[in-house]
Amino acid sequence: MSNDTNTFPIESKLSGFFDKERAETHAPVDLFDRIESNLTEQASNSLWSRVALLAATRRQIVGTGIAAALVVAIGVTAWQIGIVSDNSNSTIYAGEPGEAGAPGALGAPGAPGMPGPSGTRGGADDVTLNPAAAPTAMPAATAAPNFVSADTVVQTVTVERVVPQFLVQTVVVSEQGDSGEVVVTADSVMTLVDAEAIVAALSESGYGISQEQYDELVRQVLAGELLPPPEPPSATFFQNYGVNPFSTTSVDPFSTFAMDVDTASYTLTRGWLNSGRVPPPDAIRVEEFVNYFDQDYPDTTGTFDINVDAAASPFHDDGRILLRIGVNGQDIAVDDRRVATLSFVIDTSGSMGRDNRLGLVQRSIGELVSNLRDGDRIGIVEYGTTARRLLEPTTDKGSVLTVVNSLVARNSTNAEQGLRLGYAMAEENFIPGNINRVILMSDGVANIGQTGSDALLSDIKETAQDGITLSTVGVGLDNFNDVLLEHLADDGDGNYSYIDSLSEATRIFGNGLTGFLEVIATEAKIQVEFNPEAVAMHRLVGYENRSLTTEEFLDDTVDAGEVGAGHTVTAIYELRLVDEPVGKLGDVRVRYADPDTGEIGEVSIAVEGKVTDVAFSDSRTAYQVTATAAMFAEILRESPHAGDVSLAELAEVLRGLSAAGQLSDPRSEELLKLIETAQALGVTGYIPAGE
Questions:
Q1: Which residues contact 458 (CB under 8 A, 6 or more apart)?
Q2: Cα 506 to Cα 124: distance, rounded to the nearest angstrom
Q3: Is the CB of residue 525 less than 8 Å from the CB of residue 548?
Q4: What is the DSSP letter of 689?
Q5: How far is CA 307 from the centre of its chain?
Q6: Rounded distance, CA 15 to CA 13, Å?
Q7: Which span out of 57-61, 123-127, 396-400 was modeled with the highest average pLDDT?
Q8: What's the distance, CA 243 to chain centroid?
Q9: I want to staple 331 with a disulfide (CB 3.0 to 4.6 A). Which of 45, 160, 192, 566 is the partner?
């Protein structure tokens, strides 16, 4: 889709005006609530044509009609910027005459003048007083040593929340030619007086802008260039990686794949089912269902330990064996985790305003902030139509929360520019030996920039090799790009998570934060060599997009998987044994690189035939839950290998464990509810052609 007809240039224009003055600053957490409250209380139905700045005690800002409402809101911001604290009281400085084009210093006396409409330059003496419209003074509030630069707050409030309320737009969408190119046009119905009033509010915000800048902004309003482009149709992107087939062991005894600790597919599915909808089959990755659940592996004695157990499948009638191979990683205490510099790249495009996506991102980062250790730093980049660095990496948790909570969803999505700014921030603040990570939080929809370009992906891979990794965190259901977020995390040597609730944010950024951040192994991969004298056929359930060739196991230049502290990687194999098995079932090997030294390590274990002697009902609870989760995913993705498995059978296993008091993990109880929900929604799984 092409939106060239109207690209909403206000972001780039204002960024050019304000970016020179950006600093590591913040505003009161409740600022936006107060602004919205003032707009509601003070708004008038009449349009306004004049705004004036009164340079007097407490910088009272007055106007007429709607000007009072808008300028009260902006005035609150300006007042807060001027607050200083001496630990005993707070003072709001009186503004003094400012000169157009020269903003007053933050936290000090002085405020800019305002260019006048129709070619006259305004100043502190160019005012129109309306005492009746003067706002009541806001109570002084203690502020932290730094303050938000006005573009962070004022640009957001004035342009992105207030201006659209004054614009009447007519949107025309037309198809052009055989190529199907979509042309979008938008027209505004504005008078010169209205345009001048809106732009005047910008200059009231704590900045002096030149007459040329003022005139240009007025022109943009009149031309309709401040109108956001219509939101594109909903689009959800998943990729089908196929289903692993059975392999004949005598022909190919090896199964090799990169280790994966992602869990996004499971939480995405949970979000769909809890919303009363069945997820697309392409959204299902079995390994991410399996790896979502806690396992019962013993503590490790080294970087990795390997665990195996098996039983005959209760879901199939052909004697199939379900083999669980689990690799558990070394755990690290919170106090022993390396200090982290995290450069958050936050999507604030219009689609992030849907179903409170941005709100969930804000609360999720709040959870992470509460679990930081001493010395951790967080920086913030946001991107809509353009990207902006809002906060340089800081240990000040209050600054982080204030900036994050001030974000507002609007405009198009330039994820490429956001990522490039995030990486630039990470590179400038890189500390050798520490955790240096970019974290993208988005619904993955990018309609501006070249997010999937080879150049960008190559840069991400190269930077990962230099010690800056990328994790992606997805939110949203409709209008969601799962493919992009997974691909970016893979190339960035990070992990991909999906957050559908605050409880999931707590799981990832609370107790799971150390595992999310601290990598214990890179280029990690697993190879299983099955014994043809015991195993006739074998099939890896899942990991289709992590498949490696047999030779790549020993090739240490191959990009494989990254594993965090305390993480487990579990795989389920379906086996068909020979009639009279002889010897062990096979051998499991794990190969990986030390993230600091690059030194290669390898561990292995033999899978003895006796592991199949246990009946499924007598097997460990975690094994039964894991096998059930894998079969649930197989049904949801319509795998032909689960064509004879029913959701009722899966539910029966979990209900039996629950009745016996063995489902102590709330996630397992939740799995049962999701299976029951899928049943109620009519999920049947694979249906052979013609039936």
A1: none
A2: 51
A3: yes
A4: T
A5: 33
A6: 5
A7: 396-400
A8: 28
A9: 566
Amino acid identity for residue 226 in this structure:
L
Backbone conformation region of residue 99, classed left if phi is above 0, alpha if psi is from -120 to 50, else beta? beta
Contact 485, 496 (CB under 8 A): yes
Cα 592 to Cα 150, 386, 525, 570, 610: the distances in Å are 48, 39, 6, 16, 29
Cα of 121 vs its chain's centroid, Å: 45
Residues 672 and 630: their CA atoms lie apart, in Å, by 13
Cβ atoms 442, 485 nearer than 8 A: yes
What are the tens digits of pLDDT across the range 326-372? Answer: 999 999 999 999 999 999 999 998 888 887 899 999 999 999 999 99
Rounded to 5°, the CA angle 24-26-30 comes to 165
Find the mean pLDDT for residues 588-594: 97
As given in the structure block, the two tokens for residue 297 are 């592996």
Nearest one of 38, 106, 121 to 75, comparing CA atoms: 38
Q: How many helices (DSSP H) and strands (DSSP E) are in the chain?
A: 18, 22
Q: Residue 367: beta bridge partners?
A: none
Kindly report the number of other CB atoms within 10 A of residue 503's CB atom: 12
What integer pLDDT is reported at residue 456 of this predicted model? 73
Per the listing, tokens 């009272």 go with 60
What three-state secondary structure class fits 32? helix
Per-residue confidence (pLDDT) for residue 230, from 0 to 100: 44
Residue 171, CA atoms < 13 Å, CB-side half-sphere: 12
SS3 state at 135? coil
Instruction: Read off the pLDDT of each residue in 263-272 and give the average, rounded to a whole number.
Output: 95
For the ranges 350-359, 373-382, 659-668, 669-678, which has the lowest average pLDDT?
Answer: 350-359
pLDDT at 224: 54
**What distances in angstroms separate CA 218 from CA 80, 223, 294, 386, one per listed residue?**
27, 9, 59, 21
Tokens at 372, concatenated: 């930081």
Q: What are phi and psi of 7, to 5 degrees?
A: -115, 10
Q: Which two tokens stand for residue 339?
A: 């200090």
Question: Quick one: tokens of 75?
Answer: 């005035």
Q: In whole angstroms, give the CA distance from residue 339 to residue 395.
A: 11
Between CA 400 and CA 394 the distance in angstroms is 8
Give 454: exposed, middle or buried? Use CB within 10 Å, 0-12, 13-18, 19+.
exposed
Quote the pLDDT of residue 355. 77
Helices 666-680, 647-659: axis angle to 10 degrees equals 150
Question: Which residue, chain included where needed, has tokens 């190339």?
Answer: 491
pLDDT digits (tens, 9 = 90+) for 549-577: 999 999 999 999 999 999 999 999 999 99
CB atoms within 10 A of CB 301: 9
Q: What is the pLDDT of residues 39-63, one digit of tens each?
A: 333 333 222 222 222 222 222 222 2
Q: For the chain, state the CA radius of gyration.
A: 29
In contact, 407 and 346? CB cutoff 8 Å: yes
Q: Which two tokens stand for residue 150?
A: 């006005």
DSSP assignment letter at 177: T
pLDDT-derived band at 205, boundaries 50, 70, 90: very low
**Res 38 pLDDT > 80:** no
Helix (H) or strand (E) holding 16, with range, is helix 10-18
* Helix, strand, coil tally for the chain in percent (to 5): 35, 20, 40
Least confident of 79-83, 107-111, 139-143: 107-111
pLDDT band at 447 (very low <50, low <70, confident <90, very high): low
Contact between residue 586 and residue 527 where contact means Cβ atoms under 8 Å apart: no
Task: Single out the residue of 15, 8, 64 nearest to residue 221, CA to CA.
Answer: 8
Task: Kindly tell me the sign of the dihedral angle through the C-alpha atoms of 673, 678, 680, 681.
Answer: positive
